[in-house]
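Note to self: keep these together.
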Amino acid sequence: MMMKFTALLAALLSMLTLPLTVSANTLYKCQGPDGRMTYTNQKTHQKCEIIAQDKPVSTFSSPPQRSAKQPTPADFPRVNDDQQKARDNDRRAILEQELANEQKNLDAARKELSEQENLIMPDERIAGGGVQGGKREARVQLFRDKVSLHERNIESIRREITKLK
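Structure:
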């Protein structure tokens, strides 16, 4: 036991006394005997030069500088304010019509769901008068999904309407 400790201590001391010539923050560009260039953080050959020391090395270049916005050409088609307001009003009318239609579809889907939840099909019955819950739930889930779809559509249309000027 004592010999193992002594050997371990000797190994640690010898490692500490080795000269530390390589820094983890130093980057070398080395040319090997075959002429190939190697980039490393360890000086491996005689023909090595320091290319970066104590600086972060990044493989990403900085984003290109954006030039100032180009002015709109004079011959570019423009829409006057009255025409744009008319377009916005048309869009609002279309969205409100879609909202009304979607609300009608939601009401119909809810009514249909309510009917299906109260209905038990013959193939969903089991001997003794019980009901197979799995079959019924699978059938009714389709109607719940339909209601959910119409509710999401209404939310989306309302968001679009609030974005209008």
